[in-house]
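Researcher: Going back to the complex we discussed earlier. I've cleaned up the inputs and rechecked each line, so this should be the final set. Can you rerun the prediction on the complete assembly and write out the structure?
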Amino acid sequence: MYSSPPALEKLVQEFSKLPSIGRKTARRLAFYLVSGDKKKMGDLAEALTEAQNRIVHCSCCYGFSESEICQICENPRRSREILCVVERASDILPFENSGIHKGLYFVLGGVLSPLDGIKPETLRIPILIERIEREGVKELILALGSSPEAESTALYIDRVLANSPVRRTKLARGIPVGSDLEFIDDVTMLRAFEERVGI
Amino acid sequence: MYSSPPALEKLVQEFSKLPSIGRKTARRLAFYLVSGDKKKMGDLAEALTEAQNRIVHCSCCYGFSESEICQICENPRRSREILCVVERASDILPFENSGIHKGLYFVLGGVLSPLDGIKPETLRIPILIERIEREGVKELILALGSSPEAESTALYIDRVLANSPVRRTKLARGIPVGSDLEFIDDVTMLRAFEERVGI
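Model: Rerun complete. Updated structure for the full complex:
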C-alpha cells in the first residue's frame, strides 16, 4: 500500500490530533502547506514554538499571559472587588470583548466531577476561597457553564461561602439578543420563561 | 481593547491563514494547544519543520517526495508505458489508494487559464510532451478536473499530440458507486446519460 512521504504523513497525523480536524481536513491542510510557499510552514512552526515558549499562566488569575502577572490583573484601574470565576482561560475573551466587566478574573481550571476524580482540591477552589478572604472581594460572579457539573460546581462554591459576606451572582440565562424565538431550544426557553423579569 | 497575549494572537493569526480555518476555529485550535500539554505544540512545530525541510518535488513526476526520485517513479515494477497526468501532487493519492493504476504519474502543476496568464509554458506541458516522446509512453490518461479550464487543458494536450501515436484517454464520468440517484447533480446526470454504455 502506497503512502505519502513520511514527513507529510507525520504532518497529517499531527493536524488530525487537533479538535474538529478530521483525517480529510488534516490532509488538506498538510497538502496546502506543502504545495505552496514553504515560508508558510516556517511561519506556523515559529508561531507554535513562540507560543510554547512564551505563554504561561498568570500567577494571579491563571489566564494566559506572557509575564508573571497578566495585563488584566496588573491594571490598577480594574476593580479588585468584583471577581469573575470562569472554567477555562479562553472564557475570559468574550467578557473582555464586550468590555462590560471592570473587575478581575479567576480561572477555576475545570468543574467538579467526582466520577472523574475531579474534587475541589483538584480544581483551584481552595486558592479561590483564600483569595476572596485575603483580597476582600465583594462580589463573586460565577460564570461557569450550564452543564450539570458546572451548575453543581457553582452551587458548591456558593455553599462553601455561605457564611461569607461576599455576594455571589451568576450570569442571566435567556433568549440571546437578536435571536428568533422559533430557533430557541427548549431548555433556554424554559429558563427564559422561569426567570422572566418585570418591564 | 483587550487582546490575548501577542504570542497567542500570532498563533491564531497563523492558523486562520489555512484553508477552511476561520477566525473562530483558529482561536479554538490555538487555545486548545496552549491550554493542554505543551508537548503537543512542540510536536506540531516539529512536524512542520520536518516537512518544510524534507519534502521536495520528485524530479521525474513532480509529486511529493523525500528523495530526488519518489518511490512510485523508482519502482521498477510500474509500467513506464501508461502515464497519468494530474493537476496537483495531492491528486496522486486517490489513484494509489484504489491501487488501480500500474503506471506512472505526471503532475502538471495547474490548468491553462489565459486570463490569469497561465500558458502551456507556465505549466509543465513542454516537459510532459518531451517525456512522452523520450520514454515511449503508449497511453496518456488525462485525469484533470472537470472545470472548463481543466477540460480545455486536456483538449489542448490532446491537440498537441494529434500526430503522436500515444493513446489519449480520460476518466469515465458518471454516477458514483453507491450513490442514490436522487442526490446526483444535474451535470453528472447529463454526463452519465450521454455517456451510457451497453450492458
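Model: Worth noting: Chain B touches chain A through 57 residues (CB under 8 Å).
Researcher: Good, that matches what I expected from the previous run.
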